Amino acid sequence: MNKRANKWSELARYLAGEMDMLEEMEYRKTIENNNQHISDLKAMEETWKHFHAGTPGTERNTGEAWSRLQKKLREDGLLGKNPVGPPDRQITPFLRVAAVILLLLAVGGPLLWFGVKRNVDKYGVETHMAARGVNTVDLPDGSRIFLNQDAEISYPSDFEQNRTVKLNGEAFFEVMSDPVNPFTVRSGNVVVSVLGTSFNVRQSDRSPEVEVFVETGRVRMSVENSGQFITLEEGEMGRTEATQLTRTVQEDPNYIAWKTKDFKFVNAELDRVIGKLEEAYHVEIIAENADLRSLRLTSTYSEQSIDAILETIATAFGMTLRKEQNTYYLINN
User: Fold this and answer.
1) Residue 63 neighbours by CB distance under 10 Å
2) What is the pLDDT of residues 182-232, one digit of tens each?
3) pLDDT (0 to 100) of residue 154
4) Given this model, what pLDDT does residue 284 score?
5) Looking at the domain that runs over 116-249, which CATH code has it been given?
6) Which among 102, 186, 184 has a CA at the least distance from the CA of 141?
7) Of 107, 117, 218, 305, which cross-links 129 as Cys (Cβ 3.0–4.6 Å)?
8) Based on the number of CB atoms within 10 Å of its own CB, is 151 exposed (0-12), middle (13-18) or buried (19 or more)?
9) Distance (Å, rounded) from C-alpha 24 to C-alpha 17?
10) CA 333 to chain centre
11) How is the chain split into domains, by residue range?
């Protein structure tokens, strides 16, 4: 079974309840390790439950969805050439789950898949937006993009011959090497050109500035229609300031913690710690009755949940942690 088929099969077995306890634990761990938030998986679980149980209000054009499903499954090698009956009559648990997933695509326009909205316009330009949390997009050439929350990318249908990506927001790129077809990222008025490397691009609607941080390899950063460019090496950051390009050494160990969920704080003011955690987990953290600048933290965290990190911080400073929806309160005792 190929990788695409195996991905479908694992998801179907999980949602259909066909995994044993050990398999289920390993599968959930795999999802978390790939930055696919468990909350998104729960949302898909709820959708499956509603459709499976025939919840009122969920009736859709199942005939059309089933036709599209069969085409998709044949492409992935999961279904033979002979026609298969409608879902309610001749469908295995795997196919039932796949039908629900394809049904979401059939009725909703852009596909919301683990928090990623996907759309293809009439010109073949494909757009992905991270609706919530950090999400991963695998490109046709084998490159991978990690989208920070609310980030949006678009690329042409002939991407393998024209490796150009437009970015709004923040994203981390792992680029497959192809000397014949360089990889280009356009963000604001900045163009980043690479052959094969990993780097971060940050651009905000609130500011015209663009930042490029190179984790591995080398990139060329230029400003459109200016003739200006700089070459960035591993560990360096380029930044636009007005119409000028500047280069510095990146010294913030938590710069891409939004992607890695790895943090290192050394005698850091608590308000700065909170700021980094809010950026990485897209939550609000309020410390009540505390002089945050007088409190300092030295600690490291690796791929922990925001709840676990804040629990340790609360304990370290003798605080009480309270959570209300997407807001956390650190209360001085």
Assistant:
1) 11
2) 999 999 889 999 977 999 999 987 777 899 999 999 999 998 878 889 999
3) 95
4) 95
5) 2.60.120.1440
6) 184
7) 117
8) buried
9) 9
10) 37
11) 3-108, 116-249, 257-332
Are 135 and 148 in contact, with CB atoms under 8 Å apart? Answer: no
For residue 6, how many other CB atoms are within 10 A of its CB? 12
pLDDT of residue 18: 65
C-beta separation of 73 from 95 below 8 A: yes
Model pTM above 0.90 = no
Dist. CA 118–CA 269, nearest whole Å: 39
Rounded to an integer, what distance in angstroms lies between the CA atom of residue 127 and that of residue 258? 22
Q: What is the dihedral of CA 152, 157, 160, 166, to 10 degrees?
A: -30
